[in-house]
Amino acid sequence: MKPEYTAEFRFYEELNDFLPPEQRKRTILYRFSGHPGIKDPIEAFGVPHPEVELIVVNGRSVGFGYQLQAGDRVAVYPVFESLDISSLIKLREKPLRNPRFILDVNLGKLAKRMRMLGFDSLYRNDYRDAELVNIAVIEQRIVLTRDRRLLYAKQISHGYWVRTVDVESQVDEVLRRFDLYGSIQLFARCLVCNGVLAPVAKADILDRLEPKTQLYYEVFQQCADCRRIYWEGSHIENMRQRYAGFSCSPE
C-alpha cells in the first residue's frame, strides 16, 4: 500500500468561484500518494488550468509540471490585472500581449459587443468543442466560455470562464479581467464576420444606401472581408459615451 501524504492549498481572488463555499478563501488540505503534477490537484479542486496565472509552492514560483511533495504549501493565483509579474510566471511560454478571442456557442451577444469595441473575436453558433480548441491553439486565441468544462482541455493555455449572464455585465467582466479598457477601438471591426473595417468614400457605395442613409450620413466604413457597410448610428454614440475616457484611436 502506497503511503499517503498531505499538502496545503490556498486559492485566491476569483479562483474561489470554482470552489464549494466551505473551501473558499481558506487553506485546504489535499491528500495524495506518489508525486502528481501540480495541475492535477488544482483541477481536482475544480479550477481549470487556463484560469491560473501563478502557482507558488513554498515561496517559489513553479510550472504545471512541478511534482507535488509531502508538506508542500501551495498558493494559486489568477491573472493580476495591474501588476506585471511576467518574471515570476512559470506556467506558459509567453503571455498574449495582443489578446484575440474565440467564444463558445453560448456567447454570441458578447462576441458582437467585443467586435463593436474593436477586439478580434471569432464566433460561430455551430462550433464543436474540438474545433474551437484547435483554432484557439493554432491562432493563439483566448477562449471565452460559459462552459467551465471546456477549459479542462489540456491544449488550452489561455481561457476564461465568463461568470455573468447579462451581456452588459459580461462585457465589463471581460474588459476588467484582461485589462482591456485602454485598448478599445470603436467602429473598427465588422459585427457580423469580425473583419477589419476601413473608410470608404460615400460616392463609391451610394447605390447601396437607403435614401434616408444617403441623406443623413456622410462617414462610412466597409468590411474588408464581407464588404458590409457601416455608419455611425446611435449605437456607436451610446458606446462612445459609455466608454468615454477609455477608448484609444488606432495608430
3D architecture notes:
The protein has 251 residues and is of the alpha/beta class. The protein has three domains: 5-77, Beta-grasp domain (Ubiquitin-like (UB roll)), CATH 3.10.20.30; 101-183; 197-231, no CATH class. 22% of the residues lie in helices and 19% in strands. It contains seven helices and twelve strands. The chain has helices spanning 39-44, 108-116, 129-138, 167-177, 202-205, 211-216, 234-242; strands at residues 5-11, 28-32, 54-57, 60-62, 73-77, 101-103, 121-123, 142-145, 159-161, 197-200, 220-223, 229-231. The strands form three sheets. It has a five-stranded mixed sheet with strand order 2-1-5-3-4, with no helix packed on it. A four-stranded parallel sheet has the order 7-6-8-9, with helices on both faces. Strands 10-11-12 form a three-stranded antiparallel sheet. Strand 3 and strand 4 (60-62) form a beta hairpin. Helix 2 crosses helix 4 (167-177). It is elongated. Residues 247-251 have low confidence and may be disordered.
**Helical stretch count?**
7
Instruction: Give the strand order of the largest sheet, numbering strands 1, 2, ... along the chain.
Output: 2-1-5-3-4
What is the domain total for the residues? 3
Structural class determined from secondary elements: alpha/beta
Helical content (DSSP H or I, runs of 4+):
10-25%
Order of helices and strands: EEHEEEEHEHEEHEHHEEH
* Overall shape: elongated
Give the termini distance in whole angstroms.
64 Å
Number of strands: 12
Query: Mean pLDDT, as a whole number?
Result: 89
User: Biggest sheet: strands, sense, closure?
Assistant: 5 strands, mixed
Low-confidence parts: 247-251
Cα Rg? 22 Å
Question: Percent of residues in beta strands?
Answer: 15-25%
